Amino acid sequence: MFDPGDGIAFGQLRDIPREEIIAHMSDPRVGKHMPLLTFEWNSDTLTDFLATKEAYWHRDGLGHWAILLKGAYAGWGGFQKEGDEWDFGLVLRPAFFGLGVRVTRMALTFAMADARIPFVTFLVPPSRKNLRALIRLGARFTGEVDHAGARFLKFRLETA
Predict the structure, then answer these.
(1) Which of 9, 20, 54, 126 has the most Cβ atoms closer than 10 angstroms to its Cβ?
(2) Closest C-alpha among 93, 100, 97, 145 to residue 124
(3) Strands, DSSP E only, in the chain?
(4) pTM, two decimal places
């Protein structure tokens, strides 16, 4: 477990009770801004999701964490290598939506200390209208991209 402080800790997704992740990802408030979430979450999809996330950790030495606030599961997020780029994603439970900027800052501090990550990308669905926090972090818009059949706004933040 990586503990950046402030009551927020980064743990392993495999340590979170399965029913908590299924409930999280089945909440329509979470799916509202996730154009790739086109399927029902159940035990089988969770098994596939966890296996994929673990494979990224094995392949790249980095991946998505479980996000904990004072020990409670708040969501998941982290870095996933897409080609030569490290993309940052964050999916919080609705009760923890307000933690986004704090968690992102902590993760970016981690990225800035990792020589493998000269910059971070963010793929944001066009349904997200409030991008001020991302811009305040220093990310700049680089254009629109298609990812897995969905359109996203792409931002880049230099970390080196």
Answers:
(1) 9
(2) 145
(3) 2-5, 8-11, 64-69, 72-82, 85-92, 119-124, 140-147, 150-158
(4) 0.90
Helices 18-26 and 43-60 sit at what angle, rounded to 10 degrees?
100
Place of tokens 């673990």: 54
74 burial class (0-12, 13-18, 19+ CB within 10 angstroms)? buried
Residue-wise pLDDT for 16-67, tens only, equals 999 999 999 999 988 887 877 777 899 999 999 999 999 999 999 999 999 9
pLDDT tens readout for residues 89-121:
999 999 998 899 999 999 999 999 999 999 999
How far are the Cα atoms of 20, 43, 105, 138 from residue 93, in angstroms, in the given order?
Answer: 10, 18, 18, 25
Which structure tokens are listed for 2? Answer: 């990586």
Neighbours of 107 (CB within 10 A): 23
Tokens of 127: 């349904």
